[in-house]
Design goal:
0% strand
Length: 55
């Protein structure tokens, strides 16, 4: 684990680590929105999805 952290913190690898963190964050946002839209579809409010997306 110590070698992995050493390699990860090298200056030429920091942008890659940042991209991995950004990808994880954006994936979480995407999943949260997808679950919210699925909940609206199940409850019969399919027309409200567009309004939810603009919010």
């Amino acid at each position: 684990m110590q070698n992995f952290l050493w390699i990860l913190t090298q200056p030429d690898n920091l942008p890659i680590a940042g991209m991995v963190l950004a990808l994880g964050f954006l994936l979480g946002v995407w999943l949260r929105q997808a679950l919210r839209h699925d909940r609206l579809i199940r409850s019969g409010h399919k027309d409200d999805i567009e309004r939810e997306m603009r919010r």
